[in-house]
Amino acid sequence: MTFSDQVRECIRSTINNHDRRFACLYGMLLFGRAVTREEIRLKSESAVFDAVFPVLIKTVFGAGVPLTVETKPRRDGGVLHIYRITQEAFVTQIRHTFHVHEERCIDMRNLPVNSMGAFLGGVFLTCGTVTDPNKEYHLEFTAPTERLCRELCDLLYSVGVHPNVTKRRYSWSAYLKDSEGIGDLLTFMGAQKCTLDLIDIKIDKEVKNKVNRMNNCDMANIDKVISAAQRQCRDIEDIIRHDGGLQKLSPELRELAGLRLENPHLSLQDLCELLEKPIGRSGVNHRFRRIAAVAQTYREEMGEIYG
Fold it and tell me: Which DSSP helix (H) or strand (E) runs through 197?
């Protein structure tokens, strides 16, 4: 089951009284494919929609509504269901009940007290999708007209959710890409369980990202240590090749140079502990700078250029 279907199942479980059923069905019909004088037509590939819509039609308008269903197999293995009501008397009754005109708009008279969430849930059942939060954060409503899309956005604004709007080829879409906004909307529509799942996934992502950043930082530090050690070994080897070699260095520099050649992969802190008279990390670093200065002097004397 997809994350969208999990949300739909949660919404379905909250449509449990007359006002909620009425508001949910209104959302489903208003954002359906067509609501004209001749017909009411909705399309869906969702099993939850298929279970909810016919029941709500019968519950609100009675069992006599002539609802026809056409099925079309999809190449991906899914099935598209097309629901139609074409008898003029029933089309007129439904449109009159919900105050639906040729230019569709959201009529607040159809939203009893505390039924806004059920209405938005109905809209989601008809034209909403939400991506698996393991992949990305994206919730979207695809509206049949620009006016419905804009009015839907106004409703979402009123409940504290701030969607963006984009024009598709044949439709308009209101979408959210922030996890907090998506979670708030899911909760408002009655999908609290999905909100909790989203929060858990977000926490897991943040922990993994933090671990990755720490690992990347550790790797960068390791690369830095290796690069510094290689440079120090090069300096020491250049000094050795010069007449007199390490013997011309002071005892403390000679000791450190020997330890570095014997332990090319140790960090400065590790080298500190190997010295006969341990000193701090900054002290060791200072001695390596003195060794580097001696090596550079020798290179200049020999007329050699090293990268």
Answer: helix 192-241
Asked if residue 206 is part of any domain, the answer here is: no
Average pLDDT over the chain reads 90
At residue 306, the pLDDT reads 44
Asked if residue 179 belongs to a domain, the reply is yes
Q: What is the DSSP letter of 38?
A: S
* 249 found inside a domain: yes
- 108: tokens are 């607040």
The rounded distance, in Å, linking the Cα atoms of 20 and 107 is 15
User: Model pTM?
Assistant: 0.72
CA end-to-end span of the chain, whole Å? Answer: 59
Question: Do 34 and 122 lie in a common domain?
Answer: yes
**Rounded CA separation 238/63 (Å):** 96
For the chain, what is the domain count? Answer: 2
Please tell me whether residues 186 and 222 are part of one structural domain: no
Burial degree of 255 (CB within 10 A; 0-12, 13-18, 19+): middle
- pLDDT of 88 over the 80 cut: yes
Give me the domain span that covers residue 104: 3-190
Q: Are residues 223 and 98 in the same domain?
A: no
- Residue bearing the bigger pLDDT, 185 or 285: 185
- Does 61 lie in the same domain as 22? yes
* Mean pLDDT for the stretch of residues 158-184: 93
Percent of the chain with pLDDT over 90: 61
Using an 8 Å Cβ cutoff, are 29 and 104 in contact? no
Distance CA 99, CA 96 (A): 5
